[in-house]
């Protein structure tokens, strides 16, 4: 059985996110507006006001309280949703850790934007990077259609009995948040059907008023270690589950994204360009052009950032002649970008080869066709034994 054809509309990434959340029928929503996420919170509130969504909107004074609200509501058994960006993500950091530690299956949209340090109301993935060890599942999407589809898949993942972890869906602020493009919006009855298997699972533990319970108590010794081990193990299980859910989504809705990673023209490729988010579309364009010129290049798009897709990446990167990694963020303390650092950690399994790190697209700067063309040319040169620069800040060298 397959889903019916949904309505095709033109909408921004923020409206796509709000619509997708509405289709999943959250019962409690709390989100504080912050650029460039504000439209998500505003539109969800409009859906509740006009009767399109039966949910409790909890107004709060800031993002820290918003995460506390959805965490508590989730522990009480409700399906929840929230959204944030940049400073908002940083402001909720303590409750972000708390929500992960409590194993609350919260689904949150994070509209990527440069975080504190230097004031920058502009796009970048540093907010995502700053929370990579928070214990959340973190997924990065490329376009507005993937925003819709991944939010639906996020609920199927977060509330899975074998996972029970919060999921953060990341998309590039100022690029996708305000980009209007054609999307197919699934029918709500089909989303209900896709999420229906969650109802047949064993009930998850929840807070019941008047009943004895322990929540948020101080962890001591082996009790703390056991809770941490189970959390860590659930995050490890999420890799395979992401692949399974993506496959099931594809079978039902007719769209799939490769699960943990998406490969593009990797068969027979000597070199691989690794990227994420909205830059993947530009990279595909360059890969096609370079293939026509006879350059054996392919692309890998990282979708699942936490847990890191080490097995899938090892399989696709092993034995290549050179790899280029494009990061839209910084890894302070390492001589490369953060995703490049993670790729370099796979060296014992993928073999020794040139791995070139490129920093680009910070603070709303575009990652352009000429930029990616340069990346491909330099990585291809390194594959042929030519001298190469280990780390390149592309905007600084234009």
Supply the key terms.
398 residues, 2 domains, seven-stranded mixed β-sheet, alpha/beta, single chain, Rossmann fold, six-stranded mixed β-sheet
Overall shape: globular
End-to-end distance, in Å?
52 Å
Name the poorly predicted regions: none
Number of separate strands: 15
Main β-sheet description: 7 strands, mixed
Structural class: alpha/beta
Describe this entry's structure for a reader.
The protein is α/β, with parallel strands linked by helices and 398 residues long. The protein folds into two domains: 7-253, Rossmann fold, CATH 3.40.50.970; 261-397, Rossmann fold (3-Layer(aba) Sandwich), CATH 3.40.50.920. It has 14 helices and 15 strands. The strands form three sheets. Strands 3-2-4-5-7-6-12 form a seven-stranded mixed β-sheet, sandwiched between helices. Helix 2 links the parallel strand 2 (28-29) and strand 3 (56-57). Helix 1 (13-23) runs parallel beside helix 7 (144-158) and helix 7 crosses helix 9. The longest helix is centred in the middle third of the chain and has 33 residues, at 221-253.
């Amino acid at each position: 059985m397959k889903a019916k054809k949904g309505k095709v509309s033109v909408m921004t990434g923020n409206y796509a996110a709000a619509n997708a959340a509405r289709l999943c029928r959250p019962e409690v929503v709390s989100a504080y507006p912050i650029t460039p996420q504000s439209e998500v919170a505003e539109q969800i509130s409009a859906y509740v006001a006009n009767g399109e969504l039966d949910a409790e909107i909890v107004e709060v004074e800031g993002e820290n309280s918003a995460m506390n609200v959805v965490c508590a509501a989730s522990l009480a058994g409700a399906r929840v949703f929230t959204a944030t960006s940049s400073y908002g993500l940083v402001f909720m950091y303590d409750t972000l850790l708390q929500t992960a530690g409590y194993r609350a299956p919260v689904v949150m949209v994070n509209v990527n934007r440069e975080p504190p340090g230097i004031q920058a109301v502009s796009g970048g993935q540093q907010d995502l990077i700053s929370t990579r060890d928070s214990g959340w599942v973190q997924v990065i999407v490329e376009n507005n259609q993937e925003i819709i589809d991944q939010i639906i898949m996020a609920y199927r993942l977060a509330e899975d009995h074998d996972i029970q972890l919060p999921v953060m869906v990341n998309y590039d602020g100022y690029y996708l948040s305000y980009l209007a493009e054609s999307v197919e919006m699934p029918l709500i009855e089909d989303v209900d059907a896709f999420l229906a298997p969650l109802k047949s699972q064993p009930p998850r533990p929840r807070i019941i008023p008047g009943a004895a319970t322990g929540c948020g108590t101080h962890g001591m010794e082996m009790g703390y270690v056991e809770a941490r081990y189970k959390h860590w193990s659930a995050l490890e299980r999420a890799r395979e589950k992401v692949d399974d859910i993506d496959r099931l989504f594809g079978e039902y809705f007719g769209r799939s994204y490769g699960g943990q990673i998406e490969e593009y023209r990797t068969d027979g490729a000597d070199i691989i360009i690794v990227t994420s988010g909205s830059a993947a579309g530009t990279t595909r364009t360059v890969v096609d052009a370079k293939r026509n010129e006879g350059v054996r290049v392919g692309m890998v798009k990282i979708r699942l950032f936490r847990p890191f897709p080490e097995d899938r990446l090892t399989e696709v990167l092993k034995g290549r002649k050179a790899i280029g990694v494009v990061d839209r963020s910084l890894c302070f303390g390492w001589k490369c970008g953060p995703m490049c650092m993670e790729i370099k950690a796979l060296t014992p399994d993928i073999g020794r080869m040139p791995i070139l790190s490129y920093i680009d697209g910070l603070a709303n700067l575009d990652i352009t066709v000429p930029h990616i063309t340069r990346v491909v040319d330099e990585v291809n040169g390194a594959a042929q034994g030519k001298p190469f620069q280990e780390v390149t800040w592309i905007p600084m060298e234009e």
